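Order emerges. One example.
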Amino acid sequence: MLRRAQELRREQKYDRALELIDQALFLDPQNFAAEAMKEMIEDSKLYVETRRYNRQHDYMTRTLSLQNEEAVLPYTELM
């Protein structure tokens, strides 16, 4: 189960990987390897989500900044 969860983590299928880890922990609550892997997968999932949100935020900030710059340019046809 842990090996498959590790493969799913590499494929960025975090939710499915966490399901397998939870199954392993249900069968053996004292499985320290599963606990450690669960933390690692949760951290990976958060990192990927944070990176995606930061990219989206940066893109939107640059887009709005560009629109603001274009909005303050004087119209040359009126001059």
Observations:
- The CA atoms of residues 25 and 40 lie 15 Å apart.
- The longest helix spans residues 32-71.
- The chain has a mean pLDDT of 93.
- The radius of gyration is 23 Å.
